[in-house]
TrEMBL record:
It comes from Rhodofomes roseus. Residues 1-102 are annotated as: Disordered. This is ZZ-type domain-containing protein. Residues 80-91 have a biased composition (Low complexity).
Length: 1261
């Protein structure tokens, strides 16, 4: 194992959202979770503060103030001043006129007053408050806007960030009316702020960085003093000409900063702890960058202040000094470098106890322990392999991670900027909306919709009302209005004119009370607030009336979701139907995707109660459904269908509950996923395509889980049982969202349609058009790598030729082996090679490029280093190996021997804080790989150097002699080594586990291989794995516990309480084993080798369980019928190997012996003997190696199933027969005893012969 493989290898990701991509983030202790109203997740305390202030929560930036929302004299709809400007500021058109100065000043002063009221530093009586009160005009305004920056600590500025930004933005909107060129930076700042608002949890370090960004933007308020944009400074340059380039650069800096923060925020907590120093360095650079940009802005504006424009130069100097005092970047830097959230403190302690970040990064066991500990957090379902893979992805180099995330982040930002522009362009007052003039009469005056305003006022409600009362009042209002209209028209003898919304009254009724209540009461609190009522009415389509909108949520949404659900299921069936024709090198990727997503998808959609409406009613909602689907599709296409976290999801969907968008969103995602699966039939697709597709689905599922958790907490607070509530509310949509056990049971019992697998290859035209759906280029077929065997000559560079001692001695080609001292392991991985050159950056620096050959795909690393000579003349070299794949830098530090052919020393990991963790000795030598492979472990030299050298010399000589002869023994050894090394690599990943003897053999093979051999053999293992019929992800052998690869044996007899199958690998020892309830706790009885089993060489999902079960049982019945129709099998002396000579094995064409295999999928009777099947399957005629097989074995004759009465009667008959038989035997015994007695009596009665002469006829004579 190489040092880059101390971290776990990239493994398949489980279907649980944990997915690629796990959404767990570090949480700041002092910052409440913040999200835009309506975004995915629970309502945050920040939103509550905004609502309590009486401000609109539809847009955190464009909030109408009491002045700007007032009606004009002509009765035209009033608009927010800040909103009315945004579109013009983005377009770059100047709307400033001299008559508008007072309005601009009033808006900025109002924003300043509001910000001062929020600032703890500007309270009356405080020193700073007196300073602010003493300043006037522009000075007073700017001082108020920056007063929040002077706080007792940066933590206070972090806590107040989200409240202060909207105030600053409103003021900057007014500045942009005078100077439109700042709109580029302002729009970027708005988008980044909105992006962070949508995040469910905010990181304090990120917010601290944004505080510095906000300070930079605050400087732009000084532009208010420059009222004439065309005025030039002392150098004859207008303010726009001087600042436009800087503003564009600031916009790019804001985007770059937000991208870095986005990557950091999505990282797992453990990754943040381990990589904190690396990321904090990036944060510090950004803080310094914003401080420099702020200084640049101040300098550019000071050029105009020097002209004395508007006589404010002295005030600007005072403001600048004040801002410098308040916004010392070093305070923010110190906060970023020292702050640890409460959630991360435990992890920091655990990492410290294990020797620090560098030590943990070198210790795979420690990583697994900490990852498992994180998995025990109540944040959702976890899987070890998935968590380790996500952690490995998070531990990348910060620069590389940021560069990789940038395209995706820019697309998200594009959506946000487009939404901001569209929102400002589309601000209008509906016909049914009231114009809010003032809030004097009561709470009802804050209601926007006229109808709800009337109801609220007549009922005398305050800030909120019980949901049931509200909906009933709404129903009565519309029904009474229709009746009143009919009475008026009847009284006036005028023909009744049908109301355009009369059809909707059918659905505004008690029958749909629950659905309407849920539409208004977003948080399920049981009360409708004024804000919720305004949110509901404002979110309806522009040309829709309120009754029509209510009818949609009463029945239209449920009907639309039902239609989408049917479409989704058709797409999923099509995906499963494509399985047989997927390209072999895509097969595992496709199976992982289906394995990770299908069950979670079903749990989120299956419980929905279906609802069917008449076509004429459906058509009334059709335009909205189509427009929503179009909007979602456009947003998904903008981000290239990459929804990597809940924040991105909220950007795509916009404000509102997740159930509002769930079904069209899943439909669009799955539609594209199906296109990619079709491409997978003929092209080799990058594995990231379907990793991302699976993560998209799991992100949506996570949003559903978050929503259910929030609702469940609300139900619990109200004294209800959440699970019971979900069975009757929200169309039962959330009933199975996180109930894995019940969900699997329902899936197993569901009567799903059988899948008709598609064996066709499709059309070339279809493939060509579908390639546009891919985000990554296609891949070439994978082939074993042999390029390493091509001899390469070391080529000196110009820098090499000019090198001097001691750098000159290390230049050239070197081979190296690394070891681990505790526990002893020599070597720790295969040999690797590097070609060291003098670095171009300096004559005393080294550089090289190499690769670790043991990875199946290889790991490329770069090498840098230097040399130093001690006073005693000893030369030490320090080399650093780094790779974007690994999470740390490997440091080799050693001393060169007297002959410049060997460097020995110790190696370990080094972190950003320059801490070094020693792992073990290393050897760097110019010896050939064949010689180096014979070298004993470094500690052998320490124990007895002479003996180690003799062994080294003898072993190397023997190896060279064997190699020089090129005998058959030499090639046989190489062949055996290759086969065994490939076998061990595959067993290391999939099992069965290596025994102690295997471990010793594996270590010997690792030491004996050259870098070229190791790379070639590892690539052979990868190629063999890709050609494997199937890797059954998530399934382990219940006997040997290895992950099953190739054939999966499923027991047909054993029934488990968990609905999981009993699975065995193809090892004959496992097939012949007994699995007890101790090994599988959900087994009702032990599994026996005589049980019926079937064999799978392709993945079987829960979706296919019943289909497979029916097919294999029918095939088993068919095979037995075929065997029964034939003559009785021949019986030899060994009845256990019965042979039916009329049946032939498809492979060897020999007679079929018990046990044998029978094909489930072939139309004809196809039998395979065990010897042929164990080779990996057979493809012949119509039979394919991937076909499912069922095992046929000699059947025991079973007793007929009898009732108890029948059994008692049979028992009586049997006892009667035994009784008669016993009597017959007793009678025979008596007769025999009688005859014996007669013989004895006759013998006794015979006369005895006395002594005397014997006659000749006597027999004894």
């Amino acid at each position: 194992m190489s040092p880059f493989h101390i971290l776990p290898k990239r493994r398949a990701k489980n279907g649980t959202p944990d997915s690629p991509r796990d959404d767990a983030q570090s949480q700041a202790a002092s910052v409440s979770p913040l999200s835009i109203p309506g975004a995915v997740g629970s309502i945050s305390s920040h939103q509550s503060r905004i609502r309590s202030a009486g401000r609109s929560t539809l847009d955190p930036i464009h909030e109408p103030s009491s002045q700007t929302a007032s009606a004009e004299g002509n009765g035209a709809p009033a608009q927010s001043a800040s909103v009315s400007h945004s579109a013009s500021s983005v377009s770059g058109t100047t709307h400033h006129e001299s008559g508008d100065d007072d309005h601009v000043n009033e808006a900025i002063d109002e924003a300043a007053q509001e910000l001062r009221a929020r600032s703890p530093a500007a309270k009356p009586g405080s020193k700073l408050g007196k300073k602010i009160g003493a300043l006037v005009g522009i000075g007073q305004t700017a001082n108020g806007l920056v007063s929040s920056l002077e706080t007792d600590s940066i933590q206070n500025a972090v806590n107040g960030f989200f409240e202060s930004v909207p105030v600053l933005v409103r003021a900057l909107d007014e500045i942009a009316k005078i100077h439109p060129f700042i709109s580029v930076a302002l729009l970027a700042f708005k988008a980044v702020y909105t992006f962070e608002m949508k995040r469910s949890e905010n990181d304090s370090k990120v917010i601290a960085l944004y505080v510095e960004m906000k300070d930079m933007m605050t400087v732009l308020l000084e532009l208010k003093s420059i009222k004439d944009p065309s005025a030039v400074d002392v150098e004859g340059i207008a303010v726009e000409g001087r600042m436009q380039g800087l503003i564009k650069q600031i916009a790019e800096d804001i985007k770059r900063c937000a991208n870095v923060c986005d990557v950091w925020s999505k990282m797992r907590s453990l990754a943040k702890v381990l990589k904190a120093p690396f990321w904090e360095s990036n944060f510090v650079d950004l803080v310094n960058l914003f401080a420099q940009r702020r200084a640049d802005l101040q300098f550019a504006m000071s050029m105009h202040a020097m002209r004395g424009i508007d006589g404010v130069s002295d005030q600007l100097k005072g403001i600048s000094r004040l801002m410098e005092e308040r916004t010392n970047p070093e305070q923010i830097i110190y906060f970023i470098q020292t702050y640890v959230s409460q959630e991360d403190q435990h992890l920091y302690k655990q990492v410290t106890l294990r020797g620090g970040a560098a030590a943990v990064l070198h210790d795979q066991c420690a990583l697994e322990e900490l990852t498992a500990e994180g998995a025990r957090e109540p944040s959702g379902e976890h899987d070890g392999a998935s968590d380790l893979r996500s952690l490995q992805a998070d531990l990348r180099d910060p620069a590389e991670a940021a560069n990789e995330n940038l395209p995706s982040f820019e697309r998200k930002l594009e959506i946000l900027q487009r939404q901001i522009v569209e929102d400002t362009e589309k601000i209008m007052v509906r016909e049914s909306d009231r114009v809010i003039e003032s809030v004097t009469s009561g709470p009802h005056d804050r209601i926007l919709d006229k109808d709800i305003y009337t109801i609220w006022k007549e009922m005398g409600w305050r800030g909120s009302v019980k949901t049931r009362h509200f909906v009933l009042a709404l129903r009565d209002f519309y029904h009474d209005r229709v009746e009143e209209s009919k009475r008026k028209e009847a009284a006036s003898d005028v023909a009744y004119t049908s109301d355009a919304d009369a059809w909707s009254l059918e659905f505004i009724s008690m029958k749909w009370l629950q659905s309407i209540s849920e539409a208004f009461d977003d948080d399920a609190s049981g009360f409708v607030t004024i804000a919720e009522a305004n949110d509901f009415t404002s979110s309806r389509p522009t040309n829709w009336s309120l009754p029509r909108w209510i009818a949609y949520w009463a029945v239209g949404w449920q009907n639309t979701a039902t239609i989408y659900k049917e479409k989704i299921y058709k797409i999923v069936d099509s995906m499963f139907a494509l399985k047989p024709c997927i390209h072999p090198q895509n097969r595992q990727m496709v199976e992982r995707y289906l394995n990770h997503t299908w069950e979670q998808l079903m749990f989120s959609t299956m419980p929905l109660e279906p609802l069917t409406l008449l076509d004429k009613v459906q058509r009334r909602f059709g335009d909205y459904v189509v427009s929503e689907e179009t909007r979602l599709k456009r947003n998904l296409e903008t981000i290239r269908y990459r929804v990597d976290d809940l924040t991105t999801l909220s950007i795509v969907t916009g404000p509102g509950r997740i159930e509002k968008y769930l079904f069209p969103l899943l439909y669009l995602m799955l539609q594209r996923d199906l296109q990619i699966l079709k491409i997978c039939r003929h092209h080799i697709v990058d594995e990231r395509e379907l990793w991302d597709c699976g993560d998209n689905i799991l992100t949506v599922v996570n949003a559903c889980k978050t929503r259910k958790q929030s609702l469940g907490e609300t139900f619990s607070h109200q004294g209800w049982i959440p699970q019971e509530q979900f069975k009757s509310k929200y169309c039962r949509l959330f009933e199975l969202t996180d109930d894995w056990k019940e969900g699997r049971k329902r899936l197993y019992d569901a009567k799903l349609a059988h899948i008709h697998y598609d064996e066709s290859s499709g059309t070339a035209g279809e493939e060509k058009s579908d390639l546009s759906a891919l985000n990554h280029p296609l891949k070439e077929p994978y082939r074993p790598e042999v390029e390493q065997y091509i001899a390469k000559q070391y080529v000196e560079t110009d820098e090499d030729r000019m090198a001097q001692s001691p750098i000159k001695e290390i230049l050239g080609t070197w081979y190296s082996l690394l070891s681990k001292r505790n526990p002893p392991e020599w070597p720790m991985g295969p040999m690797f090679t590097v070609e060291i050159h003098v670095a171009k950056r300096g004559p005393y620096e080294l550089e090289a490029v190499g690769s670790m050959p043991d990875s199946m795909r290889g790991i490329t690393f770069t090498l840098g280093g230097n040399a130093e000579t001690t006073a005693h003349g000893e030369t030490y070299y320090t080399l650093h190996l780094s790779s974007t794949f690994q999470a740390y830098i490997v440091e080799l530090r050693g001393k060169m021997s007297k002959s410049p052919t060997l460097i020995e020393g110790v190696w370990g990991g080094v972190g950003k804080e320059a801490t070094h963790t020693e792992v073990g000795p290393f050897v760097l030598t110019r010896m050939t790989p064949e010689v180096l492979s014979c070298r004993p472990a470094p500690w052998k030299f320490e124990q007895n150097r002479i003996r180690a050298l003799w062994r080294f010399a003898l072993s190397a000589t023997r190896q060279q002699v064997l190699r020089s002869t090129y005998s058959w023994k030499f090639f046989k050894q190489r062949r055996t080594a290759r086969l065994r090394y490939v076998e061990f690599i595959l067993r290391e990943r999939f099992g069965p586990r290596l025994s102690a003897e295997d471990e010793v053999e594996y270590q010997g093979l690792i030491r004996s291989l050259s870098p070229a051999d190791a790379r070639f053999y590892a690539s052979l293992a990868e190629h063999q794995l890709l050609q494997t019929a199937c890797v059954h992800h998530g399934y382990e052998c219940d006997n040997c516990s290895c992950q099953i690869r190739g054939s999966r044996m499923v027991c047909m007899t054993c029934a488990t309480r968990s609905l999981d199958t009993l699975d065995l690998c193809s090892d004959p020892r496992c097939l012949a084993s007994t699995v007890t309830p101790t090994q599988r706790s959900d087994l009702a009885s032990p599994h026996l080798p005589t049980h019926d089993i079937f064999q799978l060489r392709k993945t079987m999902y829960m979706r296919e369980r019943q289909q497979y079960d029916a097919q294999v049982r029918e095939a088993l019945r068919r095979s037995h019928a075929t065997l029964d129709e034939l003559d009785a099998p021949d019986s030899g002396p060994n009845t256990s190997s019965m042979v039916n000579r009329k049946l032939r094995c498809l492979g060897c064409e020999g007679g079929v012996k018990w046990p044998c295999w029978y094909c489930v999928e072939c139309d004809d009777d196809v039998f395979l003997c065990v010897a042929c099947d164990i080779k990996g399957g057979i493809t012949k005629n119509q039979h394919k190696e991937t076909h499912t097989l069922v095992r046929c074995q000699a059947r025991m004759r079973e007793e007929p199933q009898l009732s108890i009465e029948q059994r008692m009667e049979a028992l009586e008959t049997r006892f009667g027969t035994m009784h008669d038989s016993l009597y017959h035997r007793l009678d025979g015994l008596e007769a025999q005893l009688s005859r014996i007695q007669e013989l004895l009596e006759s013998a006794v009665s015979r006369p005895m012969l006395g002594p005397g002469p014997r006659s000749a006829s006597h027999p004894w004579t």
